[in-house]
Amino acid sequence: MASELELLDPDVRRNADRVRTVLHPDFAEIGRSGRRWTQVDTIAALEQEEGRVAPETDEWMFNQVPPGLVLVTFRISTPAASSRHASLWDVSGSAPVILCHQGTPLPLSN
């Protein structure tokens, strides 16, 4: 999904206006740390990000739950760590918006 990939792009992440159009007003995220983020929290944090490089992604899966909602799952890999992610997207309108996102760290490989 182009919108999910777009949210991984460092330039897009710092663009509050663009992020606001992609995150539902009631957006909620459970971050890798376990912290709960709202739309406002997320936009404020992303505007301040510096030095981020777009991560490698794989294991993409797209499952339509009820019509109009798509569950997107994928893995992010960086040199420092890997994590699994799940996002719930409302695709019933003119542009997809993300309702919920969760990231879970993966154990370090030996």
Strand content: 35-45%
Q: Ranges with pLDDT <50 over ≥5 residues?
A: none
What is the average of the pLDDT values?
Answer: 93
Taken from the alpha-carbon principal axes, the silhouette is globular
- Helix content estimate: 10-25%
Oligomer kind: single chain
What is the count of DSSP helices, taking H or I runs of 4+ residues?
A: 4
The N- and C-terminal alpha carbons lie at a distance of 32 Å
> What's the story with the biggest beta sheet?
6 strands, mixed
Give the strand tally. Answer: 6
C-alpha Rg, in Å? 14 Å
Helix and strand pattern = HHHEEHEEEE
Organism: Microbacterium allomyrinae
Protein name: Nuclear transport factor 2 family protein
InterPro entries: NTF2-like_dom_sf (IPR032710)
Notes on the structure:
- The chain is an alpha+beta fold and 110 residues long.
- It has a domain at 27-46 and 54-84 and 99-110.
- The chain is built from four helices and six strands.
- It has a six-stranded mixed sheet with strand order 2-1-6-5-4-3.
- β5 and β6 (97-105) form a beta hairpin.
- The longest helix is centred in the middle third of the chain and has 10 residues, at 39-48.
- The radius of gyration is 14 Å and the shape is globular.
- The mean pLDDT is 93.
- This is Nuclear transport factor 2 family protein.
Task: Describe the structure in brief.
This is Nuclear transport factor 2 family protein. The protein is built from 4 helices and 6 strands. It has 110 residues and is α+β, with helices and mostly antiparallel strands.
